[in-house]
Design brief:
Strand content: 15-25%
Shape: elongated
Number of helices: 8
Oligomer: single chain
Strand order of the largest sheet: 2-1-3-4-5
Helix content: 25-40%
Radius of gyration: 19 Å
CATH superfamily of the largest domain: Response regulator
CATH architecture of the largest domain: 3-Layer(aba) Sandwich
Number of strands: 11
Structural class: alpha/beta
CATH topology of the largest domain: Rossmann fold
Distance between the termini: 30 Å
Largest sheet: 5 strands, parallel
Number of domains: 2
Order of helices and strands: EHEHEHEHEHEEEHEHHEE
Length: 225
């Protein structure tokens, strides 16, 4: 029987000690790992070989992480985990809608990196069909339904949840969610979304579910695992 090919993780990090530690931990977790110390070589590497996930530092010589992410996304949907030293940079990253799948702030735990890596690889693994939602949305009644049970949603809650459902597993910024929720483009605080998310969570709890994850300082994600 032919052995399964281990997923290949490309680590793009210009600090040798960090890159070496990441590579060691990734290999110990059962994956293949290669390292690039410059951003401008990444698009060619992705085009030339199989890459199953990228750990991508934001500050790089040759091409910064934002431009690398943009270049890779032009040709590939390979999962990208951004490594950043400042939380505020994540807002910029998400605001540009470059398509990163997750972010990890420095200093980080190597165990957390591997845990996040496993999660994005599971989400991206081919299964022949899109993952099924554990609930349904009734647009006519603005209702959230699980089996025969349903809970009414406000129009804003419904639009927020519909937006999250469009990209399950991806982090969505507060601003993007607000743009989807308030179609009249009224000016509201970006923290308004937190109140609506709290209400949605209470309604999910009544149905025995908890699929909305908070990403500190950034936004929210719909998890189907």
């Amino acid at each position: 029987m032919e052995a399964a090919v281990k997923p290949h993780v490309l680590i793009v990090e210009d600090e040798p000690k960090i890159a070496s530690a990441l590579a060691d931990y990734v290999r110990a977790a059962g994956y293949r790992a290669s390292v690039a110390g410059r951003g401008d070589v990444v698009p060619a590497l992705v085009a030339a070989q199989r890459v199953d996930a990228i750990l991508l530092d934001l500050m790089l010589p040759g091409m910064d992480g934002l431009d690398v992410c943009r270049a890779v996304r032009a040709t590939s949907q390979v999962p990208i985990l951004m490594l950043t030293a400042r939380v505020e940079e994540v807002d910029r990253l998400l605001g540009l809608e470059l398509g990163a799948d997750d972010y990890i702030c420095k200093p980080f735990s190597l165990r957390e990196v591997v845990s996040r890596l496993r999660a994005v690889l599971r989400r991206s693994a081919p299964s022949g069909a899109a993952p099924a939602l554990p609930f349904s949305l009734d647009a006519d009644r603005h209702a959230l339904r699980v089996g025969s049970r349903d809970v009414a949603l406000t129009p804003v809650e419904f639009r927020l949840l519909a937006c999250l459902c469009e990209r399950p597993g991806r982090i969505l910024s507060r601003q993007r969610l607000l743009d989807a929720a308030y179609v009249d483009h009224r000016v509201v605080s970006d923290r308004t979304v937190d109140s609506h998310i709290r209400n949605l969570r209470r309604k999910f709890e009544a149905l025995g579910l908890a699929p909305i994850a908070s990403i500190y300082g950034v936004g929210f994600r719909l998890d189907l695992e």
